[in-house]
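Q: Joint fold for the lines below.
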Amino acid sequence: MIQKLIRKIEESRAPIVAGLDPMLSYIPEQMKKRAYEEYGETLEGAAEAVWQFNKGIIDAIYDLVPAVKPQIAMYEQFGIPGLTVFKRTVDYCKEKDLVVIGDVKRGDIGSTSAAYAAAHIGKVQVGQNICRGFDEDFITVNPYFGIDGIQPFVDACREEKRGIFVLVKTSNPSSGEFQDRMVDGKPLYEQVARKVAEWGDACMGDSYSYVGCVIGATYPQMGETLRKLMPKQYILVPGYGAQGGKAKDLAPYFNKDGLGAIVNSSRGIIAAYKQPAYAKFGEESYADASRQAVIDMREDILSAI
Amino acid sequence: MIQKLIRKIEESRAPIVAGLDPMLSYIPEQMKKRAYEEYGETLEGAAEAVWQFNKGIIDAIYDLVPAVKPQIAMYEQFGIPGLTVFKRTVDYCKEKDLVVIGDVKRGDIGSTSAAYAAAHIGKVQVGQNICRGFDEDFITVNPYFGIDGIQPFVDACREEKRGIFVLVKTSNPSSGEFQDRMVDGKPLYEQVARKVAEWGDACMGDSYSYVGCVIGATYPQMGETLRKLMPKQYILVPGYGAQGGKAKDLAPYFNKDGLGAIVNSSRGIIAAYKQPAYAKFGEESYADASRQAVIDMREDILSAI
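A: Joint structure:
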């Protein structure tokens, strides 16, 4: 799947991923009204509104971007109806030949991580049948448990030719509270990075590993150091745009081959119509605003790298 | 909800939580056969088998234990049908007046943690209505993002009078890979513990905080140190039994009031009939074996503390 991701990035000339992280406040009023009329002001109604909103955006941008990253929390908050729409979104994006990165940040002790891996990038055996729960191409995972919490995900990567992005340095303001603490003269995120590089060696594609990492766009100096520590890791870069990351800071995340990183924008794309720059599209044409935001983001990033 | 947990522990004289972490391999063959006949060898069939298995155990032990801890990964692996059974299990346990600890180990940047908090211990507003997705009493959370990833959970605890258990030292063999690394002369898990104590001060019940922690039974010496660093935290203790934790090691996890810790057993209870000690019950009476295992575990732990 890392090969497909790279191929699609090269074809689209867009090292960007659209974060499908819908909030009810992003969804046009008329769209919510129609969903609530049909399903009530219920979890089902909210989930239907999210689905219609997502579908509009996917239809508007699928030819421009290589990948999407639905954040499962935004669906999980609407319970089972919400997660049903998460699954529907994953399936629809795959129909559109998009690479799907499930932003799930799971991680636990070995036997439990094995169940999460089965849920998202692997399979379960039920009687004589092989079944798949959510069936994403990549997921994000949390390294706090150490290798035996990660190994089941790495095993699934190898068996299924799918991938993971391990959290190394997250984009949020307080990520340094633990991640930056000095351990043997180096920050913890560097210690995690060294392990990620080691884990990734065990499942290589042609030039990049199936095991990638997450480094926030909001910490470009750390990005530069970490790029060198993990030359074969694809870096998933959140935090561009709404969280404050700038395109000019992104060059160090890429390798000399022009590959090696994919930059996420969520609000900046899916709620573009709420920004002054795209207000002219209006609520009704929110998906056209998203398309224009993708085009502008691509240009912004390509100019910087 | 911490008050209810403490009251139920005192009433039951059982500081134990039954981990509802079903694997298909634990479920009696006849029960799986019936589920597959009705729903096929599908995710739906697997989920039905899990539900029937859980219901049997809950009916057999609900009068003995104060709390249950369903591990969501074991349900998530069966996709939407699995998560539907997770929700059904949560609801059924609450009907039986059990305290429900959702073992979800979620954690992310602030806005995303807010969605997870809403999903599990909070609420969402849909139009004029307040809706709840999964509606557990407590959940487990991952601290790797630092305070802005934790704050939304703490806020939900305060608003909803529900609780969280923050991972401090996990029970798995490689937990030390990052958690034990020395930071300013102290292991990272101690640094996390100090923060948990600080976060917990902001939402106290009568004598314990709504913010608790997770410390594995497999690291009793660390448990002793951490107990002192977090006197007001309830400690959720996984790793007893199948993972190797012994009752004699558990005394340091408790405070002098005899409270302050709740010990989890999953396989040891729900798959008791597969152990030589309970084999006499047989597959058909697997739930009776679970009941006996709970009685024995209570005795084992009370004798040690």
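Q: Anything notable?
A: The longest helix of chain A spans residues 43-61. Chain A touches chain B through 73 residues (CB under 8 Å).
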